[in-house]
Here is the input.
Amino acid sequence: MQKMDNTSTIAAPEIPRVERLRLHDTVVEHLRRLIIEGVLSPGVKLNERELCETLGISRTPLREAFKVLAAEGLIEIAPNRGASVARMTEKEIREMFELMSALEAFSGELAAERMTAVELAEIKALHYAMLACRVQQDLPGYYARNQAIHDRINEAARNGALRQTYLAINRRLMALRFRSNFHSDKWDRAIHEHEQMIDALERRDGKRLGEILRKHLLAKRDAVLQIHAEPASDAPSN
Here is the structure.
């Protein structure tokens, strides 16, 4: 304790312990990105010793990260067998994308009514940045901005229950959505659909935006199911 005068004292300031939390978050984000971008592919067993050496960390933050990613449905942890990247069945893929198409459509309907001019400008800026990534053949950059646009539309819907459901489902689909853009024609079709989204937002046409988003997600579903059926034909071209 530190005395202020003869009658009062104040507690010494407490320094928050944040390093472990930051390390934990960093490991989660790093592994999530590796799964999304296919560096760690579905079904791959996650070797703790190798990952610890590669990432330069101990097993404690790695195992904490595994728990978070397991809760998100990105990895599976089996007793006595360790962790592996989750693999979705065709039925799960179909059902999850159908659900996401409805969530995104509802997000679009609400966002068209509730989005501010500033939020619309931010989405348009992300769209132009996404176009630049397409020209540069930067798939990770393209995907990040693509996802940011969908995320901003969901945020602009200003519905907490919808937001939480959207985030939970989208985490399960992010790796599949990434893979669906490996072919140039799919990039270009997605860009065209995003241009239609921007136009519907500017016109505050929620019904049209909802329909565009629904079709956009169902097209993603079909692309992913095609890849799922023919995994060997799916390498990205340079």
Remarks:
- The longest helix spans residues 90-114.
- Confidence is low (pLDDT under 50) at residues 7-13, 15-19, 231-238.
